[in-house]
Amino acid sequence: MLLEVRHLSIRFARRDAPAGGRRVVDDVSWTLDAGRCLAVVGESGSGKSVSAMALTRLLPEPPARYDAGEILLEGRNVLTMRPDELRAVRGGKVGYVFQEPASSLNPVLTLGRQIGEALRLHRADIAPAARDAEAARWLERVGIREPARRLGAYPHELSGGMQQRAMIAMALCARPALLVADEPTTALDVSVQAEIIRLLRELKDQLGMALLFITHNLPLVRSLADEVAVMFRGKVVEQGSVARVLDAPEHPYTRALLACVPRLDAPRRARLPTIEDFLAADGKAAVRYTVFQES
Ligand SMILES: Nc1ncnc2c1ncn2[C@@H]1O[C@H](COP(=O)(O)OP(=O)(O)OP(=O)(O)O)[C@@H](O)[C@H]1O
Ligand SMILES: [Mg+2]
Asked: What is the pLDDT of residues 50-104, one digit of tens each?
């Protein structure tokens, strides 16, 4: 097994609540194998990004605190790794693509310099003199035309979609065993989004890479993921194969999420249900809104 998260709990300390703070990831467990894609879905603030950043301990500690659990990467617990081991894992064995390419690309360095730096850190097999050629190869692979010329470009000279491709190239050139893609297409328009998703699927299949795909977009889950974990207030409330979870959801919250997706073939109604429609007064998920499929 490539990745095994077992009973992970994470808390953020708060100055006004020194005794404990708030648990934002609560007893989360999941597994991910090479060549597979696990989608993590759930409303804003449910703990998706925090659990993904935790995989290589990217959260600032403090305020983050790992309360309990294990993160086993190829059988070794990330939570007990030495700093030098962690540095090799970050961007090496585990690559990240975030929603905003602008926040991950360095604005004052050319693409060639940035990809070259990733190669220097994580690809000892590529000689320094061969780094430009290797960087250009990855730019081409993610669909950037005239890659050799683009090595000299700065991020602001690229469109949003091209920046996102460059970030994927930078993450992939290290040949990660696991790519974490956190809302990788949310900031892009629909046609670019479709291209990036196609690219991720191709790369996963061709490189045998595992993909942890975080999204709000349930139709994208169907087109890319094998399994899905549904998060609600820090907990995984349901997980299983995409077909099982999306076609026969068991948990009221999953049903609520699915009901909130606008459907072109459904009869028009006054408004779409929201998550609040499914919450009972005590804040626990409950099916209260049952008439939404009727006209
Ligand atoms: N550095 C931090 N310090 C304190 N609290 C934090 C920190 N980072 C995240 N949180 C809190 O942890 C909770 C989970 O946040 P997280 O970013 O994982 O949500 P998410 O599911 O990724 O949401 P979104 O869909 O909006 O990206 C939120 O309540 C958030 O406010
Ligand atoms: Mg997030």
From this structure: 999 999 999 998 899 999 999 999 999 999 999 999 988 998 899 999 887 777 8
Does residue 207 form part of some domain?
A: no
CB 66 within 8 Å of CB 79: yes
- Domain membership flag for residue 271: yes
Domain count, the chain: 1
| Range of the structural domain that residue 283 is part of | 249-295
Does the Cβ of 235 fall within 6 Å of ligand 1?
Answer: no
Whether cis (ω within 30° of 0) applies to the bond prior to 60 is no
Q: How far is the CA of 127 from the centre of ligand 2 (A)?
A: 37
Q: Return the closest-CA partner of residue 257 out of 203, 210, 219, 211.
A: 219
In a domain, 98, yes or no: no
In a domain? residue 125: no
Regarding the beta carbon of 15 and ligand 1, being less than 6 Å apart is answered no
